[in-house]
Amino acid sequence: MWTILRDLLRHNRGFFAGTCLLGFVLAIAALSFVSPYSPLDSYVVVPDLAPGWPHVLGTTSRGQDVFWLLTFAIRNTLAFGLLVALISRLLSLAIGLVSGYAGGWGDRVLMSINDTFIVIPLFPILVLFYFVMRDRMSWFALAGVMACLGWAYDARLIRSLALSLRTRDFTETGIFSGMSMPRILGEEHLPYVMPIVFSTTMNNINWSIGLEVTLSVLGFTDINTPTIGTMIYWANQHTAMVAGIWWWIAFPVALLVMTFIGLFLLAVSMNEFIDPRSRLGRSRA
Amino acid sequence: MSSYAAYALRRLLQFVLVVFIGINISFVVTHATPIDPVEQSIAAATAFGSTSPEAIAMMRQSLRELYGLEGGLGEQYLSFWKRVVVLDFGPSLSAFPTPVATLIGRALPWTAGLLLVATTLTWVLGNLLGGLAGYFSANRTLRLTGLVVMGLHPIPYYIVALLVLIVFGYVWPVLPITGGAQMNMARGWNLDFVLSVLRHSILPVLSLVLVGLGGWFMGMRSLVSNIVSEDYVVYAELGGVARGRILRSYVMRNALVPQVTGLALSLGGIFNGAIITEQVFGYPGMGALLIDAVHAGDYSLVLGLTSVSIVTVSFAVLLIDLLYPLLDPRVKVG
Fold first, then answer.
1. Among B222, B226, B313, whose Cβ lies nearest the Cβ of A119?
2. Label partner for B135 (CA 20 to 30 A): which of A176, A279, B223, B265?
3. What is the predicted pLDDT for the residue at A88?
4. Cβ separation A123–B265 shorter than 8 A
């Protein structure tokens, strides 16, 4: 495991760049624990200051320090993405493995439902959800709903692996030696699909953060929890771009873009590692 | 039964299932929450100024009827479906008494047009560039293009739209950044109006294309770079078939097949992107309508838009699925 990581860091430029970007973003998030200000307080510093010392990234029109607010925002945003990814991974693993192993009618029914969740436009449903929840909309509720809606694509991927694992000799041996289905899936098949689960985790975090930011910017989430999205929401509410307070929007957006590209690079380089064909393709070119 | 009919029937069943599950999710979401939409609407309507208790009681009664909240859960479920089937979601609350169906009918062409143009452009351009990049893998310009579109790919629609808006709204204001067409202009099929519509659609389309390109580009590039090493391509090269013909008929044609499936699967996501982009550019489509409806507390409009989105997107997917065998004749046999 560690040697694989070391080799990836050494030989894969994408993996290296992704790790650096994410390391930087995580460091910023970690700084939130030593912040001198509470993210919920406003008018604690002089409003509308341009970037300079001691407020390195300036201050907002609500009298908050952009840098320290950003540390909380990125922490919450990352935690949100991680939570959604975690829950939806469990769903997609369970459905993908069972569907691939069971085959036949069970597989057909599960995959029809699966395809449905891939096709349905989720954004209107999330908006509808906010519409009926309104003020009771919490950070956890949103994460739960998004996890329930966002597992389908990866379940299909896992199922296609499980289909081929089903025909391997060790599965037959397991069946004849009396292993139960949960044990075969958990102990024999799970290790084989873990690499692809890791790489889809990165993509899923990207997806959920993207939707969270979009919903927050429109004001369709709990706008009092500081996230990157709600930061942009408040900046828009104070017409920061028109008022020339560009640092209120530019820095959160920049940090967000770094997060996205970092996660994306990790996912792509992991895929390359998993699928040696694309590695061969690269070396030949 | 011919094999195409069997295939079409399967896709049709899938379409019915998607609509069924989607509408059920909407029903569960609107009915399983602790908040009563009727009380919400009344609170929103009476927030400013005082209203007599009798008027509120009357309003409550008529709203309950409008929203189909009368009777038991089973009755509500049936009336919910009836509304979806006949596309009658009652009058809109924020634009009373215009029916919701009229409002949606007005917005739908804008969204459909934007989506059609942007998706077609993105798909064609992404596949073309990706195919070329996979075939001429040593070309520097194509490699650089790949780097740029892949860098834009993971960024959400909202952020890219915002960046495009800032660049073309503040830094270099050459294009209209808001609305679907010039305000004070006669609407109709005359040249000025059509040109105005086109000019207004450039930025929304641009931001949709920028985000979408990367996915098709990467997919196509890796497909093509796998196909290039197949025996039949090597054989064609040895046999002296012209390179352009190899690329077009031997490589691209085969690589396009999974990309069409991909298009059907990603349509829902593209639709999400389009309605967000509309909001950023104040485009008069379904996205802007949806967000305005939420802010105005217009329950029937939100519900109508959600249902119509589910039905239209799955219908578009069905269309792609039905056309798919034209591209891949093997489907008929298999």
1. B313
2. B265
3. 93
4. no
Interface predicted TM-score (ipTM) of this complex, two decimals? 0.81
In the three-class reduction of DSSP (H, G, I as helix; E, B as strand; rest coil), residue A285 is classed as coil
Distance CA B268, CA A149 (A): 12
Q: A113 — contact with chain B (CB < 8 Å)?
A: yes
Classify residue A186 by burial, with Cβ atoms within 10 Å: 0-12, 13-18, 19+: middle
- Which residues in chain A are contacts of B299 at CB distance < 8 A? 131
Q: Is the minimum CB–CB distance between B306 and chain A shorter than 8 Å?
A: yes
**A121 close to B (CB below 8 A):** yes
Q: What parts of chain B have a pLDDT lower than 70?
A: 1, 32-37, 40-41, 44-51, 65-70, 96, 180, 182-189, 329-334
Task: Tell me the whole-structure pTM to 2 decimals.
Answer: 0.83
Condensed to tens digits (0 to 9), the pLDDT of residues B159-192 reads 888 888 888 877 787 777 777 676 666 666 677 7
The rounded distance, in Å, linking the Cα atoms of A218 and A236 is 9
- The nearest alpha carbon in chain B to A130 belongs to B294
Which residues in chain A touch residue B33, judged by CB atoms under 8 angstroms apart?
132-133, 136
Contact list in A for residue B34 (CB cut-off 8 A) is 136
Q: Give per-residue pLDDT as tens, B231-280.
A: 888 888 888 888 888 888 888 888 888 888 888 888 888 888 888 888 88
Q: Does B12 touch chain A (CB under 8 A)?
A: no
